[in-house]
Amino acid sequence: MACAHGLVEHDAGFSIDASSIVFGRGVLAEVGEHARALGVRRAAIFTDRRLAALEHVAIAKRALEAAGVDVAVYDDVAIEPTDASFLAAARFAREGRFDGYVSVGGGSVIDTCKAAALYATYPADFLTYVNAPVGAGSPVPGPLPPHVACPTTCGTGSETTGIAVCDVLALEAKTGIASRRLRPSLAIVDPACTRTLPASVVAASGFDVLCHALESYTARPHHARPRSTPASARPMSQGSNPWSDLGSLEALRLAGLYLERAVADASDDEAREKLTWAASLAGIAFGNAGVHLPHGMAYAVAGLVRDFEMPGYPEGAPLVPHGVSVVLSAPSVFRFTAPACPERHLEAARRLGALDPPGEARPNEAGEVLAAVLERLMRRTGIPHGLSGVGYVEADVDALVRGTIVQKRLLDNSPRPAGAPELEALFRGAM
Ligand SMILES: [Fe+2]
Questions:
Q1: Can you give the pLDDT at residue 394?
Q2: How far away, in angstroms, is 156 Cα from ligand 1 center?
Q3: Do residues 186 and 20 touch, judged by C-beta distance below 8 A?
C-alpha cells in the first residue's frame, strides 16, 4: 500500500512466526524425550550457579540422560550477560562439540544459550551480529542446532523469541542480537518451576510480561512501517498486528487477574500458573510485533545502575531487574503515546481491570487511565516508585537519553515518534 504522498511504500502484510511450546505442570521431566526427538545426542545444558543447585537442573539432566543424551553443564551464565560472558559461553559450546542445547533458567540463561549456539556455529567478531547501530547487524548465516529452552521464571518470554540481550562493555551500551534463527526450537514451560521464586522476582518478571503485552499491543501498526526489501527481510519488530494482538490482550487480562496474587503467595499455584501462561502469550506477541519505548529506555536504566540492589536478587551486585527497569518509565511513556492510539490504551487498561464499569473514560483520558492502573499495580506489588526509587536523579537524564537513542529498532516501533527531546521529557516524567 503506498502512503498518501506516494513516496514510501508501506507494508500491507505481516509475518507470523509460531513458537513450539510444551506447557504444563511437570513437563520439565519431558525434556529428554523432546531433545532426542529433535535429533540431539550430545547436549550442553546452560544455567547459572544459583539454579544449578536447585532441583530444576537436576530434573532436566536426569531426563536427558534417561533418553540417552550425553550431557555437559555450563553454570557460568552471568545474571546480566555481557559480550564477554556471551563469548565465554560460546567457547564452552565450541569446545564441547555439542549437537544440541538446553537452557534451564531465566532470560539471561536462555539468551546466553542462544548466543553461545550462534557464535559456536558461525564464529565471528562479536559485533558482527549485534543490532545496528551498535553492531553491524549482519544476518545469521544459516540454521542453528536444536535449542530446547526451559524457563524457570514467569517473565522474559525469551523462550519464544529470537532476541538475545547483553551489555557491550567497551561501549557501555546495552543492546542485543535479533534474528528469527535464534528462536529456540522448542520451549518447555513448566509452571511448577516458579514455586521457588521470591516475591520480588515474580513482581519484576510479572511487570516484564505486562509491558511485553502493553508495548506489543500499542506498537506502531505493521501497515505504518515501510515495506522491507526483500519481503523476506520483514523484521520481527514489525509492529502491532492481528496475531500479536491475540496474545497481548489475553496476557493483559491474565496479568490483571493474577499478578498481585502470584506476588503475594508463592503457594498460590493457580496464580503462578496463569502468570506463566501470560508470559508465554506475551512472548509470542512481542516476538511477532516488537516492543517499543519502555524497553528501549530500560536498556539505559539497567545499564547505568550505580548502587541499587533489589531484595531477592544476589547481594553485593548492583542491579535493576529487567522488568523493574522497564515498568518504571512505562506510566510516563503511555501518557505520551496514548494520543497516537487512544482506543488501544483504553482497551489495555480495561483488560488490566481498570474502568469498572467499562466504557466511562474518554479517549483524551486514555493515557492517564492506563498510567494510573499501572501505578496502582506497582504500589501493591512493592515495585520502587519511579526512577528516583532506584537511585537516579535529574542530572542523569542526559546519560539515560544517550543510552536510549541508540535503540533504533525499539524507538522506530513507537506509535508516536520520540527523538532526544521527547525522551528527555519522558525520563523526567518517570523520575
Ligand atoms: Fe522484557
A1: 96
A2: 5
A3: yes
The third-level CATH classification (topology) of the domain covering 199-221+231-430 is Dehydroquinate synthase-like, alpha domain (1.20.1090)
Distance 360 CA to ligand 1 centre (A): 31
Residue 63 φ/ψ, nearest 5 degrees? -65, -40
- Give residue for cell 490504551: 345
Please state, in angstroms and rounded to a whole number, the distance separating the CA atoms of residues 122 and 104.
23
Residue recorded with cell 539471561: 108
| Distance of CA 29 from the midpoint of ligand 1 (Å) | 27
Q: What is the pLDDT of residue 303?
A: 85
Whether the model pTM is above 0.70? yes
Domain ranges in the chain?
21-194, 199-221+231-430
Amino acid at 188: I
CA of 49 to the centre of ligand 1 (A): 22
How many helices (H) and strands (E) in the chain?
A: 16, 8
Half-sphere exposure of residue 22, counting CA atoms within 13 Å on the CB side? 19
Region 200-210: mean pLDDT is: 95
| pLDDT at res. 9 | 84
Distance, CA of 283 to CA of 420 (rounded, Å): 29
Residues near ion ligand 1 (CB < 5 Å) are 208
Q: How far apart are CA 179 and CA 140, in angstroms?
A: 7
Q: How confident is residue 150, by pLDDT bands cut at 50, 70 and 90? A: very high
Architecture per CATH, domain 21-194, reads as 3-Layer(aba) Sandwich (3.40)
Q: What is the pLDDT of residue 217?
A: 98
Distance (Å, whole) CA 62 – CA 171: 41
